[in-house]
Amino acid sequence: MTIYLMRESLKKLIPDDLKDAHAGLLMQRGLTKWDKDDKQAKAELIQKIVKIPAPKKDSLYALAFTRWVQATSDTGRFATLAAGISGRLYTGLNSAGALETGISTHHTYGMPLIAGSSVKGIARSHAESLGLDKAHLTVLFGDDSDSGSLKAGALVWHDAWFIPANTPPFAAEIITTHHQDYYNGKQPEADEMESPIPNQQIATQGNFYFVIESAPGAQAWAAYAQNLLLQALQTQGAGSKTASGYGYFTEAAEEAQRSIRNIQDAQNQALAAQQKAAELAAMPAHRQFIQTWQDEMAAYTDLIVTNNEHTELYKKWRAALETAAESPDLSAEQKAKIAAAFAVKFFLARFAVAVVLARRATEFFARLGFRLAGDFRLQPGDAVFFDFPLQVTGDGGELAAVGKAAQVDGGTGASGAAAAADAVHV
pTM (2 decimals)? Predict the structure, then answer.
């Protein structure tokens, strides 16, 4: 008997080359017909599901996964683990209705998911097998025993997300039952006379991102639980049919680990930039000017003096100095602090482009109340750093190319240093 499960007008909405379909929805609603003796429709649907590729970087799932990794990047609150399935994984086999097979998937995005309750159960089973005492088990997992003592644990075991990489999330499997009547209790013994019954299934593969969240002050417990979970995944496995070799994990593939590291690094950089911006906003105006331009020059350590970037940097700095020199919001003392902060003696040791910039901006230093010439004097033994190595030699301030860091061999005055700056800017 054949039972048709889908209207003809809907069948054309499920082509053979699905690229971004919701696998969970297909498993629950994608079967077009059911026939006890003909499993062709089931096989065709399974092939459509397993052809769903790994999510692309700009897909909705990849963006959601990125947000999840960003939200769990705080190492003071979360312990995370990336682990890869060594073969295939069965989880949620009984969740797909008419298809008679299934995989736990994310409700919104349709990618494989290991429920947090399952992750917690895997870790707890392993902890109990190790003989951990009840007090430790209560901290890790809580206490919901029949004693009536309901205590929440110090940790939250979150769902494990599939890591979008190059590995397709789903795979077709066949599990063959050899003694169905015996297993169903219709025969007292397996007599080897029954026909094998192949059963088409869907499994998942790839890498998963596990997250354990700790209560305040319980980060050490989260780190302990992380190691406990990794041991459980490696030695006991997860999901169904672990006795047949399914569900065992190893360390995640390098590509998956690199993907997570990149997201976490970008998040940490963004947080650092936000913190730095907040600190800058809290500074007085003259300190903001100093810090902003010190950071700007520090970013140009490899700048070639004679190229356009150097000229543009000079124009920007000159405009900024002019604004600072004429600003009524800065006091004479604050302007003097700006000038002192950009003294050439500090530039020489820190910024490759600074000497030339200072030389070209002399007039603005003067307007800031700072006499550049008095500070622009090099002494024997002083290090001079440029974008290409130079050396001040003799009283006349002649220049000669030397090693990476040059030293002043003979005494020179302000005119010699000025000649050095002029010679650099060609």
Answer: 0.69
